[in-house]
Write a structure and sequence with these properties.
Blueprint (H helix, E strand, L loop, with lengths): L11 E3 L2 E3 L7 H19 L5 H12 L1 H4 L6 E3 L8 E4 L2 E4 L5 E3 L2 H9 L5 H8 L7 H20 L4 H10 L3
Helix pairs in contact: 1-2, 1-6, 4-6, 6-7
């Protein structure tokens, strides 16, 4: 379902983490300001991200116009991982949403962060081949949930954040 902007009419939470959803007409601005930099700063305030990592994050955030196309915002679950997919007698059900309008790939990247659906899922999702730059976009969209895990659970996620910054050239 398409939305009028990237964001949501009000802020919400991704798990217990406050999630700023200020509406933006450009998804790259939304991703930079309300996802990556906002959560990076929250991690820095907790002493979980040092100044050098914060600068690397800002360098990556500054490149979003190069890496992401302008795209029509779509309704996303916002916290789509295998633990939020239930299998009921009536079929699958999604729980614990952190909804907003944004690039639909944020859900796909989150879904692949801690597991991987079968190939049939990806064949149906892409209806052909994924975009050539999907590996970079996947890592880029995984950075926000990794920062969220760093914020929630501490230094055990620092190495994953650092590896993602490295992979993105930050």
């Amino acid at each position: 379902m398409a939305g009028p902007y990237h964001g949501w009419p009000r802020d919400n939470r991704c798990g217990p983490t406050p999630q700023r959803n200020t509406p933006c007409t450009d998804g790259r601005v939304f991703q930079r300001e309300h996802r990556l930099l906002a959560l990076g700063e929250a991690c820095r305030q907790r002493g979980l991200l040092d100044a050098a990592a914060g600068e690397r994050l800002a360098m990556i955030a500054a490149r979003l116009e190069e890496w992401l196309p302008d795209a029509e915002p779509q309704l996303v679950h916002g916290d789509l991982w295998s633990g939020n997919v239930l299998y009921t007698p009536d079929g699958p059900a999604l729980i614990d949403p952190a909804v907003y309008y944004h690039y639909p790939e944020v859900d796909l990247a989150m879904l692949t962060l801690f597991g991987r659906p079968g190939e049939a899922f990806f064949e149906a999702y892409w209806d052909g081949e994924p975009p050539a730059d999907w590996p970079r976009r996947e890592r880029l969209f995984q950075l926000y949930p990794l920062l969220n895990h760093l914020y929630l659970f501490g230094g055990g996620y620092r190495a994953a954040v650092t590896a993602t910054l490295d992979a993105l050239g930050g």
